[in-house]
Amino acid sequence: MKSIFVFFFFHFLTLSFANPGMKRQHYPCKNLVLYFHDVIYNGQNAANATAAIVGAPQWGNLTILADKFHFGNVVVFDDPITLDNNFHSVPVGRAQGMYIYDTKNTFTAWLGFTFVLDNAQHKGTISFIGADPILVKSRDISVVGGTGDFFMHRGIATIMTDSFEGDVYFRLRVDIKFYECW
Length: 182
Prior knowledge:
InterPro entries: Allene_oxi_cyc_Dirigent, Dirigent
CATH class: Mainly Beta
Number of strands: 9
Number of domains: 1
Helix content: under 10%
CATH topology: AOC barrel-like
CATH architecture: Beta Barrel
Subunit structure: Homodimer.
Organism: Cynara cardunculus var. scolymus (Globe artichoke)
Protein name: Dirigent protein
Number of helices: 1
Shape: globular
Structural class: mainly beta
Distance between the termini: 49 Å
CATH superfamily: Allene oxide cyclase-like
Signal peptide: 1-18
Mean pLDDT: 87
């Protein structure tokens, strides 16, 4: 009789701790808002360009983004990162990576890039990857890791196109929420 009581006691105890109905809420352990400014080389702006088309479809060229939603263009960049939306503000780091226009029927791109921060407030890198449906006002991409002050951080970056001038310049506001901080 005593063994049956002990069995049911431990069984009840085990079930009470394994309640799948209770969801744990996740709150960011760190938040950061930065801006990066992209100036695509267009054949006339070599002094100011921070990005270049390195791959184009057969009907395109390397100085003008292709027609048809820029499908097939591959762009690499080394953009300044600022704390505000002013292109002439002192950079706190560089956004380095690439984007690939990957859809024929709407403006969308695949992003893979790293923020390289080296200033008094932050030292280290933050790596991002994900799809960017450009026409959506606010979109999320994954923060997949980091180094230095951001060692093994993971989370979500909400990006918004803050400004653009044709096919040559755009500015993104990047609201980074880290959910794993070491």
